[in-house]
Amino acid sequence: MAKQYDILCRLLMLGDSGVGKTCMLRRFTESEFDPSHISTIGVDFKMKTLEIDGVKVRVQIWDTAGQERYQTITKQYYRRAQGIVFVYDITSEPSFQHIAKWASDVDEYAPDKVQRILIGNKSDEELMRQVTKDQGNKLAESFGMEFFETSASTSSNISESFTRLTELVLQAHKRDVDNLLGALDDYLEKAALEDEKGSRYADDNTHKACAC
Ligand SMILES: Nc1nc2c(ncn2[C@@H]2O[C@H](COP(=O)(O)OP(=O)(O)OP(=O)(O)O)[C@@H](O)[C@H]2O)c(=O)[nH]1
């Protein structure tokens, strides 16, 4: 049977309420954009399979509620994340200012190896822009993160940013990935040999049956 995927990768989306986390996720996994804002309650997740350097990666993306009242619940998910997407809205200066708070929470609760990227969403709303691209770049640089401006509405940079974060996670866990793939290859090779042996045995039996 063909392998469905080789590796599971867990990403988490953080940022203020209304910055567009759910819309970005729907755009990435379902190629859809719904302009209504229904606040996420607690957490939700969606999956998508990517192929990176010949490795099939099942990406599980957790979408968290930006509202303050859900923070106790959402923080419980930080520990299991391998990659974090920090999102602000380029038309909202406060959402940009709050990234420092989200980042310090991650430092406190997430594993050391966690990979992070910064995203300024709603890049289609140029006339409403409050945060310049340069400000975004500088903030990302100060945290040692890569930076993207995206639009869930037009789909600009959505796939690129999620794929890049997945690549960073794979690079950070390269040794584990190689070990896992090695073990998987050994297993598949062994299974193929067993199959071959089995069919030879069946052939032998067939011949015997014919000879009688
Ligand atoms: N113009 C524009 N609007 C967007 C974009 N992404 C999201 N929106 C709008 O922003 C609003 C909030 O989007 P959501 O995805 O629900 O925001 P969220 O960050 O998930 O919010 P919480 O679940 O409350 O944390 C919705 O009305 C969307 O239509 C975008 O790229 N461009």
From TrEMBL:
<keyword id="KW-0378">Hydrolase</keyword>
<dbReference type="GO" id="GO:0046872">
    <property type="term" value="F:metal ion binding"/>
</dbReference>
<keyword id="KW-1003">Cell membrane</keyword>
<keyword id="KW-0653">Protein transport</keyword>
<keyword id="KW-0472">Membrane</keyword>
<keyword id="KW-0460">Magnesium</keyword>
<protein>
    <recommendedName>
        <fullName>Ras-related protein Rab-15</fullName>
        <ecNumber>3.6.5.2</ecNumber>
    </recommendedName>
</protein>
<keyword id="KW-0547">Nucleotide-binding</keyword>
<dbReference type="InterPro" id="IPR027417">
    <property type="entry name" value="P-loop_NTPase"/>
</dbReference>
<dbReference type="GO" id="GO:0003925">
    <property type="term" value="F:G protein activity"/>
</dbReference>
<dbReference type="GO" id="GO:0015031">
    <property type="term" value="P:protein transport"/>
</dbReference>
<dbReference type="InterPro" id="IPR005225">
    <property type="entry name" value="Small_GTP-bd"/>
</dbReference>
<comment type="subunit">
    <text>The GTP bound form of RAB15 interacts with REP15. Interacts (GTP-bound form) with MICAL1, MICAL3, MICALCL, EHBP1 and EHBP1L1.</text>
</comment>
<dbReference type="GO" id="GO:0005886">
    <property type="term" value="C:plasma membrane"/>
</dbReference>
<keyword id="KW-0342">GTP-binding</keyword>
<keyword id="KW-0479">Metal-binding</keyword>
<keyword id="KW-0449">Lipoprotein</keyword>
<dbReference type="InterPro" id="IPR050305">
    <property type="entry name" value="Small_GTPase_Rab"/>
</dbReference>
<keyword id="KW-0813">Transport</keyword>
<comment type="similarity">
    <text>Belongs to the small GTPase superfamily. Rab family.</text>
</comment>
<dbReference type="Pfam" id="PF00071">
    <property type="entry name" value="Ras"/>
</dbReference>
<comment type="function">
    <text>The small GTPases Rab are key regulators of intracellular membrane trafficking, from the formation of transport vesicles to their fusion with membranes. Rabs cycle between an inactive GDP-bound form and an active GTP-bound form that is able to recruit to membranes different sets of downstream effectors directly responsible for vesicle formation, movement, tethering and fusion. RAB15 may act in concert with RAB3A in regulating aspects of synaptic vesicle membrane flow within the nerve terminal.</text>
</comment>
<dbReference type="InterPro" id="IPR001806">
    <property type="entry name" value="Small_GTPase"/>
</dbReference>
<dbReference type="GO" id="GO:0005525">
    <property type="term" value="F:GTP binding"/>
</dbReference>
<keyword id="KW-0488">Methylation</keyword>
<keyword id="KW-0636">Prenylation</keyword>
